[in-house]
Specification:
Radius of gyration: 16 Å
CATH topology: Rossmann fold
Shape: globular
Catalytic activity: N(1)-(5-phospho-beta-D-ribosyl)glycinamide + (6R)-10-formyltetrahydrofolate = N(2)-formyl-N(1)-(5-phospho-beta-D-ribosyl)glycinamide + (6S)-5,6,7,8-tetrahydrofolate + H(+)
Structural class: alpha/beta
Number of strands: 7
InterPro entries: Formyl_transf_N (IPR002376), Formyl_transf_N_sf (IPR036477), GART (IPR004607), GART_AS (IPR001555)
Distance between the termini: 15 Å
Family: Belongs to the GART family.
Number of domains: 1
Number of helices: 7
Helix content: 25-40%
Enzyme class: transferase
Order of helices and strands: EHEHEHHEHEHEEH
Pathway: Purine metabolism; IMP biosynthesis via de novo pathway; N(2)-formyl-N(1)-(5-phospho-D-ribosyl)glycinamide from N(1)-(5-phospho-D-ribosyl)glycinamide (10-formyl THF route): step 1/1
Strand order of the largest sheet: 3-2-1-4-5-6-7
């Protein structure tokens, strides 16, 4: 059985879609959800889905080996970032080479990097007059949004679209593609 750990800092809608995708499977299990935010919506979703939650603080994440140790002890095969707002430290990246992925709400390399997440990305896309946006699923390295790209999907941005309109289109792409790409990475299907 392949085991997934999800890291999330916010509402957890992508985490929930991933859990639902694998819910009836006997070959893949979402084993843990990690969060650095004790108020994150992902906690309520994890409880509903009966997935254990691991809380951690900044010091634990950046200055101890506790998180990689938990992941290794649990036999995690793939680390999935889903709305996780912290830069992953080198010790964690090195512990899971090419076994840690992220989803970004834009077509990288555009609109990536520190501070480019959620509404900030969609606002920048609209303000720049872009005619398309989308999602990028990529491997994680020590830099924000710079790992090798695995998959991209596009959506149209039309005149008059607000950042919220773009967000809705991008969320639809995230929900449709992230669980599927994770499945392909884990199972080769």
């Amino acid at each position: 059985m392949k085991r997934i750990a999800i890291f999330a800092s916010g509402s957890g809608s992508n985490a929930e879609k991933i859990c639902e995708h694998f819910a009836d499977r006997d070959d893949v299990d979402v084993s843990l959800i990690f969060t650095n935010n004790p108020m994150a919506g992902v906690i309520k979703r994890a409880l509903k889905l009966q997935v254990p939650v691991v809380f951690f603080d900044r010091k634990t994440f950046y200055h101890t080996g506790k998180i990689p140790q938990i992941l290794q002890n649990e036999g995690i095969d793939l680390v999935v970032l889903a709305g996780f707002m912290m830069l992953v430290p080198p010790v964690l990246v090195e512990s899971f080479p090419n076994k840690m992925i992220n989803i970004h709400p834009a077509l990288l390399p555009k609109y990536g990097g520190k501070g480019m997440y959620g509404h900030f990305v969609h606002e920048a896309v609209v303000n720049a007059g872009e005619t398309e946006s989308g999602i990028t699923i990529h491997y994680v390295n020590e830099h924000y949004d710079e790992g090798n790209i695995i998959f991209q999907a596009k959506c149209e941005v039309v005149p008059g679209d607000t950042p919220d309109d773009v967000a809705r289109k991008v969320h639809a792409l995230e929900y449709a593609h992230y669980p599927r790409v994770i499945d392909e990475i884990l199972t080769g299907r």
